Amino acid sequence: MASRRRMLLKLIILGDSGVGKTSLMNQYVNRKFSNQYKATIGADFLTKEVQFEDRLFTLQIWDTAGQERFQSLGVAFYRGADCCVLVYDVNVTKSFDDLNNWREEFLIQASPSDPETFPFVVLGNKVDVGGGNSRVVSEKKAKAWCASKGNIPYFETSAKEGFNVDAAFECITKNALKNEPEEEMRITTIFLGLLIVCLPALVFIMTKDTFLKQLMLPGEDGHRDRQVASVELLDGALFIRVQKQLLL
């Protein structure tokens, strides 16, 4: 009899700032899209329950910042990942050229047991922009790069229109299942990751007045944004959720 116990799969989304990582995640999980751009601070995640081959899974999708000043957080957020999603903007050459750097950085920080077989999926996003006339990275070029890295699955997507988003995440889930670790190992990994991620939050709470000023960032409209950490309980494991709050 097939197991109906819900399992956890951790997905990491990487790519340059502005390629649509947050929009892809929100389109897949919430069926929502916003034209208003706000850079992710540190990392955030959403969860979605899916059923595959009579098994229930909770996808924990981590949306990470594309700015260099946040890359030092990589170890805490990358460890324990079951699949890494590399995203670029088909209209921006640099975002495609940087895919190799993101892939190598992930392999260094996450330290998977078998780097050669760890599952990646590449998404060429924003194919809707300009009716497709403004793209500078061809599908042929992208597929050639994916083939050179061990035949990484490739999808062209539009977070705005929802084009190919579900199909891409279905493939991502299937690839994540191939990397699913033993439960005991997963619990250990989550626990260690929790210690790494929670330590700054605990320091923040203990020295709130001191750190608050350092975490205030200028917003697009002249207001100030604050990075806020909250804790979420999921299947007996704790996870940190990092968000921005607007300070008027």
From TrEMBL:
Annotated Gene3D superfamilies: P-loop containing nucleotide triphosphate hydrolases (3.40.50.300)
UniProt superkingdom: Eukaryota
Membrane topology: Lipid-anchor
Coiled coil: none
SUPFAM superfamilies: P-loop containing nucleoside triphosphate hydrolases (SSF52540)
Transmembrane segment boundaries: 187-206
Entry's localization field: Endomembrane system
Keywords: GTP-binding, Lipoprotein, Membrane, Methylation, Nucleotide-binding, Prenylation, Protein transport, Transmembrane, Transmembrane helix, Transport
Chief location: membrane
Pfam family, one: Ras
Family: Belongs to the small GTPase superfamily. Rab family.
PANTHER family: RAB FAMILY, RAS-RELATED PROTEIN RAB-7A
Name of protein: Ras-related protein Rab7
